[in-house]
Design brief:
single chain, 81% helix, mainly alpha
């Protein structure tokens, strides 16, 4: 730990990668929070409609992240290896797969999206009014997925090559624009949820335009002349896909597992407000770990790609200790202010505030375990151990956490605090598995050596076969 803190160059590089990510995540959280308040000024039905439609957006984000995960591993390693040819091909893989995903998901949402809203609003007495608001909001909002996908292809590749400032700047501008347009459209022009959807589409277009324009004007290696040489080697396409599928399945299983866990908590009476406070609090403090995850994947992945295996192992140890130190500090701060956080929700009762405080304290105590799990996941993923990370992450969740959550909720009279503490402790098992996989050293792989010499083929033609 001391060695990691004394290495000023190491810390400087780490902060240069992680700080912009944290800033962008913080701004995103603030703007989303303000957006919810603005939509809340329209009607309760508008809030419910936006929430229900945003469940589709959540699925889109998760699926998109999973689809790009395999290529992300190779982008990091090719960047470290200074292999521009294959770096561009990994970037193009994201573009091809993402475009195909868009072509499938958009028609489905246009035709059947109202069923999703109906499901989430099935217990609401004002379901008919919610469906009316959602019918105005959803067709416009899902158009924002088009610029969002292309912005994400570029932004994720920029981050994976260590260039985190441009995505931050574009994101902050877009999010700020979104907030201003929401105020104009919702309250000025009285467009309601239609205004909120239009603001999102315009903001996403601005974000995509900024990132794509600057990336090409600066002739960045991954996209410069990439479209003139639109080729992906068949072997590379297969290698990336092989890594992608376990990571995509993991993301989908993890997200559904989190939903199932939340539903089990809701089996206890009068807990939703406390869970809402906990969720908001963990999102705020989770900003730090978003930056940590990006920093680990970039620093370890690029070092492996450069063929510096021992250096990658050394960096991984430093990052593990650094993550523990950061999480202990953040956890202590979280615990210290836990009695004051719920007071921000003036309309919530004292019992709910007390419950929220207790859960925040428990979360703060386990934060260092959570940090090790994140670090281990990113280190293993950087070395291409996709199946192992799936077993460690969603595998343990579905074998242990989710079944236990429902057993405790339905078969015992344990209060929510006790259930929450027990489920958080399962992360200790995940941590032990992750550290064991790191300790055996098999994760430290230079994946760039597995790619053959260029024998190129059109990516689209390869897909059609």
């Amino acid at each position: 730990m001391i060695k990691a803190l004394k290495d000023k160059q190491f810390i400087k590089k780490f902060l240069a990668i992680t700080f912009p990510v944290m800033v962008q995540t913080l701004v995103s959280f603030i703007v989303t929070f303000v957006d919810n308040i603005m939509v809340g000024g329209v009607s309760n039905e508008a809030v419910s409609a936006v929430y229900s439609v945003n469940q589709a957006s959540f699925f889109f984000y998760v699926a998109m992240f999973g689809l790009f995960s395999g290529a992300s591993i190779y982008v990091q390693q090719f960047s470290g290896a200074k292999d521009v040819t294959h770096l561009r091909q990994a970037f193009l893989y994201k573009l091809v797969v993402g475009t195909l995903f868009l072509a499938i998901i958009l028609p489905i949402l246009f035709l059947f999206g109202h069923h999703l809203v109906a499901f989430y609003s099935r217990s609401d007495t004002n379901q008919a009014a919610i469906l009316v608001e959602a019918a105005k909001y959803m067709p416009i909002l899902i158009l924002s997925y088009i610029p969002l996908l292309f912005a994400t292809v570029y932004a994720s590749t920029l981050r994976e090559t260590g260039r985190t400032r441009l995505p931050m700047i574009a994101g902050v501008i877009a999010l700020s624009t979104n907030a201003l347009l929401n105020a104009l459209f919702i309250y000025g022009l009285k467009l309601g949820v239609v205004g909120a959807a239009l603001a999102t589409v315009i903001a996403r277009l601005i974000e995509a335009a900024i990132i794509i324009t600057i990336a090409h004007r600066q002739k960045l290696d991954f996209c410069h002349q990439a479209y003139r040489q639109f080729k992906i080697e068949p072997k590379l396409f297969r290698l990336i896909s092989k890594k992608m599928w376990p990571l995509l399945i993991n993301e989908l299983l993890w997200s559904t597992g989190m939903i199932m866990q939340s539903l089990s908590y809701a089996q206890r009476d009068n807990v939703l407000s406390a869970l809402s406070i906990l969720s908001t609090t963990t999102e705020i403090f989770g900003i730090v770990f978003n930056g940590l995850a990006v920093g680990i994947s970039v620093m370890v992945g690029s070092t492996l790609g450069a063929g510096k295996i021992e250096e990658a192992r050394d960096i991984s140890k430093k990052l593990l200790w650094l993550g523990i130190l950061i999480s202990l500090s953040v956890g202590a701060f979280m615990i210290a202010i836990s009695p004051f956080i719920p007071r921000l929700w003036a309309t919530v009762g004292n019992d709910q505030r007390t419950l929220a405080t207790q859960m925040i304290i428990i979360y703060g105590c386990f934060l260092w375990v959570y940090s090790v799990c994140i670090s281990a996941y990113q280190i293993l993923r950087a070395g291409g151990m996709a199946k192992q990370t799936m077993i460690m992450d969603s595998g343990i969740m579905w074998v242990g956490t989710v079944p236990l959550a429902w057993i405790l909720a339905l078969a015992t009279s344990l209060p929510l605090v006790g259930i929450f503490a027990i489920l958080q402790s399962i992360d200790i098992i995940k941590m032990i598995v992750g550290l064991s996989l790191i300790r055996n050293g098999k994760w430290a792989n230079n994946l760039t050596t597995a790619v053959s010499e260029p024998v190129v083929l059109s990516a689209v033609n390869d897909l059609l076969k």
